[in-house]
Task: structure prediction
Amino acid sequence: MDIRLVVFDLDGTLVGAKKPFSEIKRELRKRLIEMGIDKELVGDLTPMYEGLLRISRETWIPFEELYSILVELETERMDESFPFEGAGELLKFLKDRGVTLAIMTRSSKSAAVKALEMNDLMEYFDVISTRDDVPPEELKPSAGQLRRIISSLGVQPEKTLVIGDHGYDVLPARELGALTVLVTGHNTGRMSFQVEAEPDFEVRDLPALKVLLERLFSSYVVVPAYNEERTIASVLEELLRYFRCDEIVVVNDGSRDGTEEIAHSYGVHVLRHLVNRGLGGALGTGFVYALRKGAKMVVTFDADGQHLVEDALRVMRPVAEGRADFAVGSRLKGDTSEMPFVKKFGNFVLDFVTAIFAGRYVSDSQSGLRCLSGECLSKIRITCDRYAVSSEIIIEASRAGCRIVEVPIRAVYTEYSMKKGTNILEGVKIALNLLFDKLR
Result:
């Protein structure tokens, strides 16, 4: 994937400390009450920084006077800070790949710098953004703090990955279109309250995060294309939001129009069949190329415009996280409102036929949006040249013991894409093809 900037949360993500935030909050509340501020006015201080701003407005006590107490408590807390396992190795891995690194934290500048210097992490970061560096209204979970970081480094949001341990890290990234990873297994350093926000990826700890990033950095997208000059440009523009040119493999399956020339104009890698071999032949060629390049994950993406790149990310998630070897994007588990009845019925029949040979049922066996680990893909032998390949991949993966999951997706049906794919006659051919091929 085309990740050029990684923005880390600090406390709870890269470093922890023995004293929990709940204890800091209790001490802050105690000191405010000792100053003569009414208990009811102090409240529960969730979150603390915004609580101090509120108290200053309502009491006319200078904010700096109140804020200095919080900074003192935070900075003292960092005396016992420590890096989480794998922090240094992860940061070095990213820097060695040429990725720019930044910190986005709600901590004070003095606390953040102290933690980074104490734990020998300062050298890795080009930007350190703390709550002292932005107006209160721009502090995360507002998108302003992240927008400043991205803008200062000249990186597009889609080329940015935000890594944190809290919903406050996910929300600004989602607003700007950046990718997110939530680290869930660190028990120290996390804020004393939670906010529900769904990340793009989730891991338990930093060693697992490094494995996930290795998979993302070695992902390929195979796009089989036959006479798709009307849609190939928009498809590639969408994929290039998140993937590098050399990670996108267009297999020109004997097109007689301008498909190949358009694909070349976007700088992606193009493989050519001199004659039309069908979907199976095109996927087979793309798979062989990706495996030879050392792909750890391979995504297949139709060239007719019926898939969303956001759904491709969802389909990648279980494989990237190591929970599955093969993820199928299921239109039947997602929004089927645009799916014509004839396609629903045809898919149901082919799903049933596929299940007979695979020994397991997949609700959308004919989906063109799927993700396979390199290890699983290396165990699959493709013999079907045409549409039967969609069923064959599932059968082969199941027989090889690959862990298969389904991910709900939405198919975008247009008059153009409706003419593509399988129909009833093609469905009969697929069923017969599978029967003859798998029984021989």
The chain has a mean pLDDT of 90.
